[in-house]
Fold this protein.
Amino acid sequence: MPTALITGGTTGIGRATAELLHTRGYRVAVTGQNPDSLAAARRELPTDILVVAADARMSSNTDALVETVTERLGRLDLLFLNAGVFRPAPVGEVSEESFDDHVAVNLKGQYFTLQKALPLMNDGGSIVMTVGIAARHGSPGATVGAATRGALLAMLPSLALELAPRRIRVNAVSPGATDTPLLDKLGVPQSGRDALRAAVPFERFASSREVAEVVAFLASDAAGYVTGQDIAVAGGYGLGA
C-alpha cells in the first residue's frame, strides 16, 4: 500500500489531495499548525488519515513529525511539500517579521522537512512542491510570497538531478487562482475575486480537487518519466501576457 506525507494538509489543496489519495488506497499523513484546522481535519477526514500538529518554522517539530511518520507509515512513496504562508502587501509595507516568517515556512521549513524525510523515501518515489503561478507571472503585493515559493522552483532542477540515481522524481505544481479558504482568510472582496476570475481564460477558479488530481498524477507510475518539471494548474492564466 503506497504512503504519502502532505505538509499543510488540513485545508485547501493539501486536504483535497489527502482525501483523493486515500480513496486510491494510500496511507496518508497530513500536517497543520492551526488548532481549528487540525481539529476539523481530525473530525472530518477518514479516521485512518494521520493528522499531525507540526509547525514548519520549528526544527524540533519536524524531527517529531519524521519520527511519528516513521512509526506509523514506515516508508514514503510521496512527499508533498505544500505548507506555506502568504500575506500579500505592497513592498513598502512588508515588515521584517513578515519577511522572516515567509522565509521560515515557505523555504527553510520545506527544505529541512525534505532533508529529514528523505531517508524515508522509497527509491522510485515522488516529491512534489507547491510553488504557485505568481513565481513566474507576478502579482502585485506578492513579492515575498512569490520569492520564497520561487526559491523552491530554483532548486528544482538541481534536486531532480541529485535524486535521479534513486529514481526519485521531483516536480512542482503551480496553482493559479484556486477556490480555497485562503481567499476568505485574506479577506478578498467580491470585486477582487471578479477581477481575478476575469484574468483567467477559463473564467473561473480552479477547485482544490483539480490541483490534487495533478499531484496524484505526479505521484503515480503514469508520471514515471517526469522529473524536474513545474506544472501550472491555472486555467491558462498568463498565456496571453
